[in-house]
Amino acid sequence: MANNARDLSIDVFDYSLPDERIARYPAKERAGAKQLVYRNGEISHGVFSELPDRLPAGTLLIGNRTRVIHARLFFPLAEGKRPIEVFCLDPLLPVDYAQNLGARTQVQWKVLIGGNRRWKRGPLSLELEVSGQKTSLTAERGERMDNTFALTFSWETEGAPLTFGEILAAAGTIPLPPYLGRESEPDDSARYQTVFAKTEGSVAAPTAGLHFTPEVMNNLQKNGVDWEEVTLHVGAGTFKPVDADTLGGHTMHREFFTVSISFIERLRNQLKAGKPVVSVGTTSLRCLESLFYLGAGFAVGELMVVDGPVEVGQWVAEDPQLVGTDPLAAVNGLMELMKTNSLTELSGYTQLLLTPFAELKLADGLITNFHQPRSTLLLLVAAIVGDDWRRIYDYALEHDFRFLSYGDSSLLWK
């Protein structure tokens, strides 16, 4: 075993996942999926609908309110030629998600282009109808950035101006994970979206939340379980494999998050009361733990002024001064950071890599699906349960659990 995260071999987090165990489609009923429960080294299972009875009264559940956009667009070429696929990754101009998706004339995105060599020169155009209005969408290729491009979208409508979000909703398709091995279907527009999704921006769903239903949410409330939300827009990098021998050679993907000062205050009250915090999904957990390191930075005097989006680096969990900060002191520091800078919301980007060497600071438990071998998401699971991740996954395989985005659930306690 390595002595630090950078020397940790990804080979340690490999396991055999039979192809037939990958859930190609969601369960018939959202809350009818299985749920594995890990607590104090013991493993059991039931169904997800029983979650409200598994959580102690006073637990604070934290979900990710992000909404998946129709990020895949297909631009036709001459008759008989395959269309050019454009996969929208991140907004460039305006860089703010809400402003970009609300723009009414032109935007710029970082994109992947399928069939780029067949796109010889000049702009591409797509004719469509949105809310009964004829619309023409144009894409113009710009600067190349490694394997991505800057792409400028502009559009004209015959009636009232449309937002780019409306254009995407009408012209694009839901970007299903590549490992599902199929194209999106009409049902995916609803099923690859949580029932509490509100803020558009993700190109992948926060899949741990897919099992929740209004009935489950109501039963949680009846049982005294509280609910709060953060926003972290899930990027395509969540599927990026670790292709280096050790984690030190892996560059973690970067994702945008936003939290309100009222959320920070609610989190502080939870910590002061000594009651459990449970993250719904790895994305919410990544946001939570990033907030700890931001608050710790203020508490030790490293971060004072916020001028634009904040940044959380990949290796902050290796900084002994930050790691040693008391969680409540860090959250108090975050409150002070926001008040000092007159912020009601805090936004930024996180590259935080969570590993078994990074003790979780703000979360006591995690609700999550079952993840790919050799993935950073599996590393995050090991940050909670240690080496028992392998026992958990062996149990899931032996008991016919369904894996990955449309698969079954687990409730893991630290």
From TrEMBL:
Molecular function per GO: S-adenosylmethionine:tRNA ribosyltransferase-isomerase activity
Keyword S-adenosyl-L-methionine appears in the UniProt entry: yes
Domain of life: Bacteria
Pfam families linked: Queuosine_synth
GO biological process, one term: tRNA queuosine(34) biosynthetic process
Annotated keywords: Cytoplasm, Isomerase, Queuosine biosynthesis, S-adenosyl-L-methionine, Transferase
The name this protein goes by in its record: S-adenosylmethionine:tRNA ribosyltransferase-isomerase
Organism: Neolewinella aurantiaca
